[in-house]
Amino acid sequence: MQKFAHDAISAIFPTIYPGQLVLQITDACNATCGQCGMRVTNRFPRTRMSLDYVKAIIDRAAENRVKAISFTGGEPFLMAEELFEMIRHAHRAGIPFIRTGTNGFLLRFTGDEDNFKKRVYPLAEKLAKSGLRNFWISIDSASPNRHERMRGLPGVIKGIEQALPIFESAGIYPSANLGINRYMGRGESPLMLLSQNRDAFHHAACEAFSQFYRFVVDLGFTIVNACYPMSMEDNREAVYSATSRDTLVSFSREEKVILFQALMETIPGYRKQIRIFSPLSSLHALIKQYTRQGNCYSSYPCLGGHSFFFVDSRDGNTYPCGYRGSENMGKYQTLNMKSVINKKTFCRRCDWECFRDPSELFGPFMEMLNHPLSLLKRFHEDPEMIKYLFSDLRYYQKCDFF
Ligand code: SF4
Ligand code: SF4
């Protein structure tokens, strides 16, 4: 067990150096998602980071022993050639977990088979040779029509279905990325507002998650992830424009608790059919945090601004995450990591899954290294946490840590 824990930590998580960087290489996009400030119909000057600038950040990240880099957007594949070179550069620099994703516009199928193959085969081949570890494709709904209308990308679901075997034959296993929203189920009506009927909301949420998992399994995905609602009670300071207060993705505190419960209840039934990244231990902690169970917050504070960082495409500067836009930390290359890493972590202001899930999943290991007695106290106060944590770790190990 000790060796397994050590491998898990050193595979994904830093002990003393920052571990994860989300680089927003552009805020340009060609989709129409109503819940996102970067949709193509929103008028503002679009930006993109230059290849040389990104390479300098990657070199510094490698020196800092960063384990994971995500290239995000906007739509990263609007600058596909530079993106491939960024991925290759990160791979050459020895970063093990390199991720990027797409809204799938390059995969749209409009009936012309030859044109489709000419686009998708080279894409799969380039991704396979690049050193990329995870490739996500955003899917918003179990209803193809609804998804395509929301994204403004007709033909994208058919295209994804046809592209998945092509990717797999090249050794790429894309992940379906659900941003939890009120239209994620199969039906045409949105998930109801909670109002008075808690049980009905819970039932509808369980159904919607089930429908979504069945849908992506049927499409041919082998990995799926859920991004928790990208909204917070006050996100006016957010630097990352993918945050939103749109009702489509805004949920009250009570609704979030039920959504997290519904997700926790739905996941075990699908873990054998598809690799589900969402950790039960993190959902459990978020529920406890929102319901204020226990003597203190039961969730671990987020590592945003400590070991995880966000670099914004507009000014090229570093922020603790996509939300804390008032905390401009300057250029990543000039960050004083020693002073950053000595800062105490404290933040639980949002549920940004790419920061909250790993913070939660590896929090106990960090605590074991630094404050073993407080970890024992935590386990004593919350025995369910151990159960979920070990269930997650066993599952992650089977999934080769994704
Ligand atoms: S959610 Fe993604 S695909 Fe949709 S508008 Fe925003 S950046 Fe573009
Ligand atoms: S919880 Fe993490 S991602 Fe959310 S605002 Fe705090 S540091 Fe940022």
TrEMBL record:
Keywords: Iron, Iron-sulfur, Metal-binding, S-adenosyl-L-methionine. It holds the Pfam family Radical_SAM. This is Radical SAM domain protein. The keyword Hydrolase does not apply. Residues 15-271 form the Radical SAM core domain. One of its GO terms (molecular function) is metal ion binding. It comes from the Bacteria.
